[in-house]
């Protein structure tokens, strides 16, 4: 009997990261908040880069500073940041700048924030790349801070920026403060542009929790309970101090949270206004729950909450799953349903409608390049039947695989809610989550297979008049053909990984749904074999014979495994049905 757990094709984080789009956010702060013409010139430079989406421009007159937010894949974001820094350096003269906010450069800070499909370590490497380019191409000295810092003493932005612009000449002459990139001298260019702090940091969430009170004082009491800084310790009304005369503080319950209570006249309620500075340490749902606990202790009640600005998808999914687990319900359900649970539980729609398409970063910037999976069943079938060669067998194989693992996921969810099986809900929830992850990948691959075919067509249509053009065209066709092999090969691996879920559900799942596990296994086998046929036909056009032999050998082994696993599961299903 094949041990599915030991298969090399189980879907892991590396596979997901490889196939998912990497997104980062860039939040540069420019030392100009009054001249809208200059600000527009800078944002035009950002928008000139294809693949980057400008999300927000927030100028401040008193601070004479503008915070800009844009997102995209890492390389376009780095390019957009360089163009913005260049334009800011041309238009802003730091010798003439004044404002309330600390600053030391025309582009004062330029942090990169991982949004999805990318780690903080990877984001820090892009920050290093950005700083190096700014130093070399623009002549702007750069210090790396937060997670991109090269020295522990440079992690804190306030430390890096100490002395501000007026202290730059002295700072740059100090060997201990040699910039991480760019010139270490206060030359004419640097006198105008100043320097820039380039960093990698976590996403910051501005989050308000609504209370059934109008009292700012009572709201502040809750804020002091939860925020990291807590409250000043007092005894008989007097501040308690340490031996050095510093006020002693009683820390609040939540790390990496800043908070204050205030009254919002527009809504007629008091709120706890929080900045969640590290959502890995204190995620949004934990902050909400802690405010609820404090409010209850103080005789108040939380009525809802409010997100200021945008939020990463993961934050909403984590919140929804957290509340589902508290209800002892399966978390292996569709993202839309998980998000709906989060919105309702957090009361994000109490003060105004909460539209996930406008509030979740990934949804807001999603490109319309997944047309097949957006179609209804009838239109998808009609599109397949049309005279166009795409979608073809590869896309259909991926979709059949998605249907198969969805059946296994359904059995897991039904089992999690089966009467009398309450103590087993969490185990079945884990199986459902695994099934959903595989389903997401296969749905992604439905359109990806068609994109791969289109890349081959585009390569074939390249000009071939000169010898150089012929070489470029030949190389492009070879690369596109390899990609058209890799995509169905990924379909094979992903569909094969679904047998683990399907077999488990045939063995331990709700017996009333055992036939669904069997149908899912047949779909999974079809997906593997169908994708194999695409691998094989595309391999015939490839010149790299060593690659072909290695790939086809691995693909044939996957086909054999799929056939064996389907047979084992179907035998198990029939035994249970006949029992």
Distance between the termini: 21 Å
What oligomeric state do the depicted chains represent?
A: single chain
| Largest sheet features | 7 strands, mixed
Number of helices: 19
At the fourth level of CATH, the homologous superfamily of the largest domain is Formiminotetrahydrofolate cyclodeaminase monomer, up-and-down helical bundle
β content, as a range? 5-15%
- Pick out the low-confidence regions: 1-19
Mean pLDDT across the residues is: 91
| Class inferred from helices and paired strands | alpha+beta
Query: From the coordinates shown, what is the CATH architecture of the largest domain?
Result: Up-down Bundle
**How many domains, in number, for the residues?**
3
Could you please describe the fold and organization of this structure?
Strands 1, 2, 3, 4, 5, 6 and 7 form a seven-stranded mixed β-sheet that branches. Residues 1-19 have low confidence and may be disordered. The chain has helices spanning 13-19, 36-47, 74-91, 120-137, 157-160, 168-173, 188-193, 216-226, 284-297, 313-326, 335-346, 356-359, 361-364, 377-385, 393-416, 425-460, 467-508, 514-539, 545-578, and strands at residues 23-26, 29-30, 52-60, 65-72, 107-116, 142-146, 196-200, 205-211, 231-232, 234-235, 238-239, 249-250, 257-264, 269-276, 302-308. The chain has three domains: 13-200, 2-Layer Sandwich (Formiminotransferase-cyclodeaminase, Chain B, domain 1); 205-364, Formiminotransferase, C-terminal subdomain (Alpha-Beta Plaits, 2-Layer Sandwich), CATH 3.30.70.670; 377-578, Four Helix Bundle (Hemerythrin (Met), subunit A), CATH 1.20.120. The longest helix has 42 residues, at 467-508. Helix 3 (74-91) packs parallel to helix 4, helix 8 (216-226) packs across helix 9 and helix 16 (425-460) packs antiparallel against helix 17 (467-508). The protein has 579 residues and is α+β, with helices and mostly antiparallel strands. It has 19 helices and 15 strands.
């Amino acid at each position: 009997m094949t041990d599915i757990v030991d298969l090399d094709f189980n879907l892991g984080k590396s596979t997901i990261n490889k196939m998912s789009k990497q997104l980062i956010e860039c939040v540069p702060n420019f030392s100009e908040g009054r001249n809208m013409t200059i600000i527009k010139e800078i944002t035009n430079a950002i928008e000139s880069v294809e693949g980057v989406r400008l999300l927000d421009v927030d100028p401040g007159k008193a601070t004479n500073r503008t915070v800009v937010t844009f997102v995209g894949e890492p390389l376009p974001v780095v390019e957009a940041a360089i163009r913005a820094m260049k334009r800011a350096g041309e238009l802003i003269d730091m010798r003439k700048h004044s404002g309330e906010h600390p600053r030391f450069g025309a582009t004062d800070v330029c942090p990169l924030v991982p949004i999805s499909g990318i780690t903080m370590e990877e984001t820090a490497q892009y920050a290093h790349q950005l700083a190096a380019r700014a130093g070399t191409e623009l002549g702007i000295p750069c210090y790396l801070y937060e997670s991109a810092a090269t020295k522990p003493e440079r992690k804190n932005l306030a430390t890096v920026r100490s002395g501000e612009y007026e202290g730059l000449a002295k700072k740059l002459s100090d060997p201990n403060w040699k910039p991480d990139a760019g010139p270490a001298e206060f030359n004419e260019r640097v006198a105008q542009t100043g320097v820039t702090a380039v960093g990698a940091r976590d996403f910051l969430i501005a989050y308000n929790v609504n209370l059934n009170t109008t009292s700012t004082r009572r709201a502040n009491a809750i804020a002091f309970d939860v925020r990291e800084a807590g409250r000043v310790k007092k005894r008989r009304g007097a501040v308690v101090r340490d031996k050095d005369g510093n006020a002693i503080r009683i820390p609040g319950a939540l790390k990496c949270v800043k908070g204050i209570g205030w009254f919002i006249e527009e809504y007629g309620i008091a709120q706890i206004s929080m900045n969640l500075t590290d959502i890995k340490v204190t995620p949004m749902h934990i902050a909400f729950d802690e405010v609820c606990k404090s409010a209850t202790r103080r005789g108040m009640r939380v009525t809802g909450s409010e997100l200021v600005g945008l939020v990463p998808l993961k934050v909403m999914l984590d919140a929804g799953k957290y509340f589902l687990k508290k209800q002892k319900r399966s978390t292996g359900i569709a993202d839309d349903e998980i998000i709906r649970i989060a919105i309702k539980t957090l009361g994000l729609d109490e003060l105004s409608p909460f539209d996930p398409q406008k509030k979740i970063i990934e949804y807001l910037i999603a490109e319309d390049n997944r047309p097949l999976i957006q179609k209804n069943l009838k239109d998808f079938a009609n599109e397949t039947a049309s005279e166009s060669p795409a979608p073809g067998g590869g896309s259909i194989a991926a979709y059949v695989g998605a249907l198969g693992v969805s059946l296994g996921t359904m059995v897991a969810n039904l089992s999690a809610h089966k009467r009398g099986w309450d103590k087993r809900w969490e185990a079945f929830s884990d199986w459902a989550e695994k099934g959903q992850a595989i389903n997401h990948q296969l749905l992604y691959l439905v359109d990806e297979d068609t994109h791969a075919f289109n890349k081959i067509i585009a390569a074939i249509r390249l000009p071939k008049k000169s010898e150089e053009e012929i070489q470029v065209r030949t190389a492009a066709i070879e690369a596109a053909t390899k990609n058209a092999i890799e995509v169905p090969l990924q379909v094979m691996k992903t569909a094969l990984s679904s047998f683990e879920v399907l077999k488990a559900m045939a063995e331990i799942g709700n017996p009333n749904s055992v036939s669904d596990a069997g149908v899912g296994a047949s779909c999974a086998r079809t997906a593997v074999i169908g994708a194999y046929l695409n691998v094989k036909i595309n391999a015939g056009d490839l010149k790299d014979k060593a690659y072909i032999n290695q790939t086809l050998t691995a693909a044939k082994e996957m086909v054999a495994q799929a056939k064996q696993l389907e047979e084992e599961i179907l035998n198990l299903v029939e035994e249970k049905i006949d029992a």
